[in-house]
Amino acid sequence: MKVAKFGGSSVADSIQLKKVGEIIKKDPKRKFIVVSAPGKRNKDDFKITDILIRLGNAFLNNDAFEEHFSTVIQRFREIIEGLELDTSILSEIEQSIYTVLNANYSNEMKMDAIKAIGEDSTAKILSAYLNSLGLQASYVNPKNAGMLVSNEPGNAQILPESFSKIYALREEDGILIIPGFFGYTEDGQLMTFSRGGSDISGSIIAAGIKAELYENFTDVDSVYSVNPNIVDHPKEIKTLTYREMRELSYAGFSVFHDEALIPAFKEQIPVCIKNTNNPECPGTLIVSEKAPDEKCVVGIASDTGFCSLYVSKYLMNREVGFGRKLLNILEDEGISFEHAPSGIDDISIIIREKRLTSEKENIIIERIRNELHADTVSLQRDLAMVMIVGEGLVRTIGLAKKATVAIADANVNIEMINQGSSEVSMMFGIQSKDLNRAIQSLYSAYFE
Ligand SMILES: Nc1ncnc2c1ncn2[C@@H]1O[C@H](COP(=O)(O)OP(=O)(O)O)[C@@H](O)[C@H]1O
Ligand SMILES: N[C@@H](CC(=O)OP(=O)(O)O)C(=O)O
């Protein structure tokens, strides 16, 4: 049995959904189907989830929300008409939006319930469409599928007891269509994963039913060695290990959510990234082990939106508990950190900028000065991280030299280096404005 997840680009309109129907029809092992909400149909288009968020914000702020409502309904109407389905589904979608808006939830929970309407409606539409093709398919709500999650709006985590419940789905007849992106808490409240989280749902279902394969259908033929939006026609990657993909997706390969690998990895389910627009192409396979590659670097990932909190204090290395107290301050303010390269008298804490508002920044800097008596505390924003990834990194001489030379050739200054404890990656912090230049130069050095 296989799990096939279709991302936003694969369900963006009725033409795409017809391709999805063909793909499901072609392989009877594709019994578990997870869908996203309609994504962008072209570069300048919008994602339904983004419009639903605007709708939710407008409603919660007592602003006019009708325009967003019509945009959502119009998009689903086009899909339903394009698939020649009964328009009663559209009334059901309209009704579900009103029900959520008028429900007696907290604002955060209401927002999650609004966001989930994109996936939920798409699953209902696909199920009806497959039935119209003569296939036996049914919509399964994540609550009935057994997707139990933590109570963290917009950032839910799966609870371990879900997996055995999901296993029972194997006994159900026909093709099961499950909306991605959300689950339910133990007390029945809808909760979404973080953005892009339908990949996580697919992986959870794959792990739960112990699938032979988790196919993740998107709009590219494979995972490329670098973001194709930065380098034209980059080299395709045929096989990756879970560890490599986890590092690459964490560091910016948005083609697969970085939290989505863990459930599949734990059950050793192979993951295949495939193209809905070219399903015969073999795609990229993600497995636990692969034959040693001649090329020890498989990919170069990058992401912007980081900042570095620099703290220095003479004899920091001798002060017992300094690191704990520093991280405690971040914990008190509810801020997680990404990396923490350190020296004798100083430490830099790398944080995602979106987590550190200027208000939080002032509080944290004041507290570090007053409570830890630091000599210097400063914050550098607009940083980008570049991650060079490959299983062979640990045993190959000269890879760091190659990277630093390539970055220097691009006339880019390195703000931070973090080889860290990971055996499969090497990280460089640079200024965001220099990112594309650095990546293009690194790509030439490692792959051309
Ligand atoms: N290294 C990479 N390899 C392939 N695609 C990448 C990579 N890095 C970023 N992407 C982007 O990821 C996109 C697919 O992810 P996403 O938009 O989330 O798809 P979906 O709509 O299927 O959920 C591609 O169109 C591509 O622009
Ligand atoms: N629709 C949700 C979840 C998701 O996974 O979407 P996509 O498959 O388009 O990345 C989002 O936009 O966050």
From TrEMBL:
UniProt keyword annotations, A-Z: Amino-acid biosynthesis, ATP-binding, Diaminopimelate biosynthesis, Kinase, Lysine biosynthesis, Nucleotide-binding, Transferase
What exactly does this protein do? Catalyzes the phosphorylation of the beta-carboxyl group of aspartic acid with ATP to yield 4-phospho-L-aspartate, which is involved in the branched biosynthetic pathway leading to the biosynthesis of amino acids threonine, isoleucine and methionine.
Ranges for the ACT domain? 388-448
The record's annotation in Pfam families points to: AA_kinase (PF00696), ACT_9 (PF22468)
Q: What is its EC number?
A: 2.7.2.4
The record, for CDD domains, names:
AAK_AKiii-YclM-BS (cd04245), ACT_AKiii-YclM-BS_1 (cd04911), ACT_AKiii-YclM-BS_2 (cd04916)
Give one GO molecular function term: ATP binding
- Kindly list the biological process annotations in GO that this record carries: diaminopimelate biosynthetic process; homoserine biosynthetic process; lysine biosynthetic process via diaminopimelate; threonine biosynthetic process
Q: In which pathway does it act?
A: Amino-acid biosynthesis; L-lysine biosynthesis via DAP pathway; (S)-tetrahydrodipicolinate from L-aspartate: step 1/4; Amino-acid biosynthesis; L-threonine biosynthesis; L-threonine from L-aspartate: step 1/5; Amino-acid biosynthesis; L-methionine biosynthesis via de novo pathway; L-homoserine from L-aspartate: step 1/3
- Reaction(s) catalysed by this chain's protein: L-aspartate + ATP = 4-phospho-L-aspartate + ADP
| Keyword presence, Amino-acid biosynthesis | yes
One Gene Ontology cellular component annotation? cytosol
Task: Identify the residues that bind ATP.
Answer: 5-8, 218-219, 224
- From the Swiss-Prot or TrEMBL record, give the protein name: Aspartokinase
